[in-house]
Amino acid sequence: MTYLLQVRQLIESSFEPMACECVICSDSSLTVRVFDRLSGRVDLVVTGIAVDTLKTHDDVHTLIDELRDEIASVSVGLDIKQRSQA
Q1: Which long-range contacts (CB under 8 A, 24 or more apart) does 55-62 make?
Q2: pLDDT tens digits along 26-61
């Protein structure tokens, strides 16, 4: 269990200054929610991440990179949509 707490802390601290909340579910999966601290706007929610795939620090850093890439792609998509509506 200590390892899972370390994984959670590492993921949550990796998205500062944004807020990140990790929940370890009863089915041994992880849900990650990244959101703006001030507005509460949610930028990303990913559910069903298999905890057993996060065995090493490299595994955790790979997940963090993938989550950041997803946030960036969603952000670019929203920016393009907003420009087309203007």
Answers
A1: 57/10, 60/7, 60/10, 60/11
A2: 998 999 999 999 999 999 999 999 999 999 999 999
- The DSSP bridge pattern shows strands 19-24 and 29-35 to be antiparallel
Closest CA to 43 of 24, 22, 18, 63: 18
Distance CA 48, CA 33 (A): 12
Residues shown for the chain: 86
pTM above 0.90, yes or no: no
Sequence-ordered list of residues with C-beta below 8 angstroms from that of 41, at least 6 positions apart, any chain: 35
Beta bridge partners of 32: 22, 46
What's the angle, vertex CA 11, arms to CA 53 and CA 38, rounded to 5?
Answer: 145
Helical segments of the chain, H only: 2-13, 57-85
- Output the six-digit token pair for 52: 């057993």
